[in-house]
Amino acid sequence: MPDFLDFDGGLDDLGVVGTIIAAILLVIVAIFLALVLFNVIAIALELLLVVLLLLAGVFGRVVLRRPWIVQARSGDMVLEWPVVGWLSSRRKIADVAGQLRSGAQIDAPRRHG
Q1: CA–CA distance, 51 with 88 (Å, rounded to integer)
Q2: Are 89 and 68 in contact (CB under 8 A)?
Q3: Which domain holds residue 18?
Q4: 47 within a domain of the structure (yes/no)
Q5: What is the mean pLDDT of the segment spanning 10-35?
Q6: Which of 7, 49, 55, 84 is most solvent-facing, going by the fewest CB within 10 Å?
Q7: pTM, to two decimals
Q8: Is residue 5 a part of any domain in this protein?
Q9: What is the pLDDT of residues 30-64, one digit of tens each?
Q10: DSSP states of 61-95 as a string?
Q11: pLDDT in tens, 60-69
Q12: What contacts 65, CB < 8 A, 6 or more positions away?
């Protein structure tokens, strides 16, 4: 019979003391792994939540065509334009910036302040 199949050896050489030491080490390793794995799982769940919220936001803006709000502020006055689409919002920002630079009258559907 090969030596690795011989179950008569092992911790029996140390007797009851070896079994107690092995049990204590097993408990310490189990507690250590539980604490480490708990932190890893908690971080993974938080990252998953952030990714899901990001995907939900992108879905709402792109697929459901929710408008972006483009704002221009000057002191207490706030001008806002709801614009559908990312590219359209960038165009609106450039258009408003150009109007502000030239001193032209700005068309604003909503005013606050």
Answers
A1: 25
A2: yes
A3: 11-62
A4: yes
A5: 83
A6: 7
A7: 0.49
A8: no
A9: 999 999 899 999 999 999 999 999 999 888 888 88
A10: HHTS-PPEEEEEEETTEEEEEEE-SHHHHHHHHHH
A11: 888 888 888 8
A12: 84, 85
